[in-house]
User: Which sequence fits this backbone?
């Protein structure tokens, strides 16, 4: 895992929840089966703009959805996944799953030196 990228993912997801959802925001983290799972839960809802931002392959023409687009790019560079899950009766969970590797793994992490990546 890349600490700076993981931090930016959390900043963007929690920031979106605080700006766009009423009420409290809950952040959870767990490790299971060599994967880090992060979830940001709020009382907002999944809007069409949110779904579009998660599917967008290029940067948005305006600033709307830019934070989620950055999250998607960072998670992809770390070979993880991101999804939005609607909660009943009201709420939204943004879930990110990132792979972990042992400390004695290869000297270069998987994202290092990838050509065409917006993060290199």
Assistant:
């Amino acid at each position: 895992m890349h600490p700076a990228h993981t931090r930016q993912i959390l900043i963007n997801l929690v920031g979106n929840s605080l700006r766009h959802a009423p009420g409290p925001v809950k952040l959870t983290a767990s490790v299971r089966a060599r994967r880090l799972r992060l979830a940001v839960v709020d009382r907002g809802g999944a809007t069409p703009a949110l779904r579009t931002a998660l599917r967008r392959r290029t940067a948005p023409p305006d600033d709307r959805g830019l934070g989620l687009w950055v999250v998607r790019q960072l998670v992809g560079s770390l070979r993880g996944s991101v999804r939005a899950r609607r909660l009943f009766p009201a709420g939204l969970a943004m879930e990110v799953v990132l792979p972990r590797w042992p400390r004695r793994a290869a000297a270069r992490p998987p994202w290092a030196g990838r050509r065409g990546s917006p993060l290199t």
